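Key result, reporting period 2: structure in, sequence out.
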């Protein structure tokens, strides 16, 4: 319970669910409280098939229950932070969350046109810092994501290091740079081909990254 007082007058009181857990990458594995964590995840857009982006709490609960019924244990907020109530429900129902910054340059050519341009760093930074400052107290969030399909460049690398300084308690992922980027703790290839659906050492490009888990 968080309370705000003016002298002896109670101005505001807010109840908040909290949780204690340790998430880390060790020996090439994502670990929760020291034990390997197998992610069975799904992407979710904040969308209703009839009302578009008008999503009620009942809709959110229905989505969570469908995930649970199909043995999913994690969800990626693709490709933007969600409504505050969503995280509260994930805390309550026990669903791991990858919270993703609202950064996407899909369709730009080249893909790193903005992500490698220092002029765009303030815009990139605003979206990442707002996400973290708004949602960092939710224990359901186990990974921060630097966005989606934005190429790879200095802006992502700068924000990766900002995140590691300001929240060392969570890993950071970003798919845009593949295994060549230093802006991720997790190798998470997008739409990996069948020939790459194999242990990481069999893929030469990723062979030197074995201390990173693969998604």
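The corresponding designed sequence is given below.
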């Amino acid at each position: 319970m968080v309370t705000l007082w003016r002298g002896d007058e109670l101005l505001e009181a807010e109840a908040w669910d909290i949780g204690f857990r340790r998430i880390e990458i060790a020996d090439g594995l994502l670990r929760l409280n020291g034990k390997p964590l197998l992610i069975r995840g799904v992407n979710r857009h904040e969308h209703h098939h009839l009302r578009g982006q008008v999503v009620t709490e009942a809709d959110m609960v229905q989505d969570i229950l469908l995930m649970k019924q199909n043995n999913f244990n994690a969800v990626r907020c693709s490709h933007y932070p969600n409504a505050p109530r969503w995280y509260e429900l994930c805390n309550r129902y026990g669903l791991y969350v990858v919270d993703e910054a609202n950064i996407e340059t899909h369709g730009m050519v080249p893909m790193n046109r903005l992500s490698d341009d220092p002029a765009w760093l303030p815009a990139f930074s605003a979206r990442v810092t707002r996400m973290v400052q708004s949602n960092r107290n939710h224990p359901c969030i186990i990974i921060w994501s630097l966005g989606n399909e934005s190429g790879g460049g200095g802006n992502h690398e700068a924000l990766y290091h900002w995140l590691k300084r300001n929240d060392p308690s969570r890993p950071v992922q970003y798919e845009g740079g593949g295994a060549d980027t230093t802006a991720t703790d997790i190798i998470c290839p997008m739409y990996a081909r069948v020939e790459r659906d194999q242990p990481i050492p069999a893929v030469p490009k990723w062979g030197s990254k074995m201390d990173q888990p693969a998604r």
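Residues 201-205 have pLDDT under 50 and may be disordered. Helices lie at 57-69, 84-93, 121-135, 154-166. This case is discussed further under Risks and Mitigation.
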